[in-house]
Amino acid sequence: DIQITMRKDGGIRVVDDGRGIPVDIHPVEGISTVELVLTKLHAGGKFGGGGYAVSGGLHGVGSSVVNALSERLDVEVRRQGAVWRQSFTIGVPDAPLQKGEGSTETGTTITFWPSREIFETVEFDYDTLRARFQQMAFLNKGLALTLHDEREVDGAEHRTEKFLYERGLVDYVEHLVKAKKTEVVNADVIAFESEDTVKKIS
């Protein structure tokens, strides 16, 4: 389950209930894996190869680039029975990862504010994010993605939309057909799936 919130102060908060980014000190880099993931390009999502049978990309370029282009980024990891926190300014750690209070939950929360000195505009467009997260939900069947907009937009109430597609691409094809309003050749979508954990494809 992933919750994305467009905050009143212009930031974006992303909360998941996954395993949480590993917090141990990386044996080669000498910094926490959280810091490594958020500061180094191409920091992989598998952390040594034992993590996932199949993955479609996790952290890598995305999070480290977001961090480098943000005037501030805060990360909170719930893992190993505790809450861990770290903050960054334009991609540079303010201090090392800190262990906080105990927690039985797992997951990661990242909140970032894009740099006004780098971007012409730091205003996020709801419809653009909505379309992107709906596509991601179609492509990751069974994954719930919820988009919240807490900003005051023309006096309108806060918006929330949840995307969850149990059949994934089948739901996507049906969505496209419905949008085009054309006559279909087959009433039912023809679909099949397979998984190979050796080749790590799905």
From TrEMBL:
<keyword id="KW-0799">Topoisomerase</keyword>
<dbReference type="InterPro" id="IPR000565">
    <property type="entry name" value="Topo_IIA_B"/>
</dbReference>
<comment type="similarity">
    <text>Belongs to the type II topoisomerase GyrB family.</text>
</comment>
<dbReference type="GO" id="GO:0003918">
    <property type="term" value="F:DNA topoisomerase type II (double strand cut, ATP-hydrolyzing) activity"/>
</dbReference>
<dbReference type="GO" id="GO:0005524">
    <property type="term" value="F:ATP binding"/>
</dbReference>
<keyword id="KW-0413">Isomerase</keyword>
<dbReference type="GO" id="GO:0006265">
    <property type="term" value="P:DNA topological change"/>
</dbReference>
<dbReference type="InterPro" id="IPR001241">
    <property type="entry name" value="Topo_IIA"/>
</dbReference>
<keyword id="KW-0067">ATP-binding</keyword>
<dbReference type="InterPro" id="IPR036890">
    <property type="entry name" value="HATPase_C_sf"/>
</dbReference>
<keyword id="KW-0547">Nucleotide-binding</keyword>
<dbReference type="GO" id="GO:0003677">
    <property type="term" value="F:DNA binding"/>
</dbReference>
<dbReference type="InterPro" id="IPR003594">
    <property type="entry name" value="HATPase_dom"/>
</dbReference>
<keyword id="KW-0238">DNA-binding</keyword>
<feature type="domain" description="Histidine kinase/HSP90-like ATPase">
    <location>
        <begin position="2"/>
        <end position="115"/>
    </location>
</feature>
<dbReference type="Pfam" id="PF02518">
    <property type="entry name" value="HATPase_c"/>
</dbReference>
<protein>
    <recommendedName>
        <fullName>DNA topoisomerase (ATP-hydrolyzing)</fullName>
        <ecNumber>5.6.2.2</ecNumber>
    </recommendedName>
</protein>
